[in-house]
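During the practical work, I selected for study one protein's amino acid sequence and its backbone structure tokens, as given directly below:
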Amino acid sequence: MDIPFALILDILVAVLLVVTISFAVTLNKRLGTLRSDKAELQKLALSFGDATVRAEESTAKLRATTELLQDRIKAAESLREDLVFLVERGNGTADRLEELVRAAAPAEDAAPRVRAAPSATPEDRPAPDQISDAEKELLKALRSAG
């Protein structure tokens, strides 16, 4: 049985056409998937752009907040230094008042009912311009309490 050469070529072309058609169908499906992925990729790129803008705005706000906090820290450090000075001054004042009260104690023993002015020597007493208003008020209160 002799199969004509033209028939073999027709069968070969038909097989190649079936293979080509199946390849074209597979390629079409993949291209459809690629097109849908392209749309998703565009959406992702847009959302990434929005996220970048929000991040830049947040960074600017963070910088402003950082500067504000640095200013507040400087103010707090200044206040802390003032408080340290006031505490030291208050401790010195308390020490002087304690000395004045101790100096007044012997005078109380001599006359328990009558309270005299502190018997400290003039050298022990601070100069009037060195006594603060609070110290003056406290001394006045101590004298009037007796």
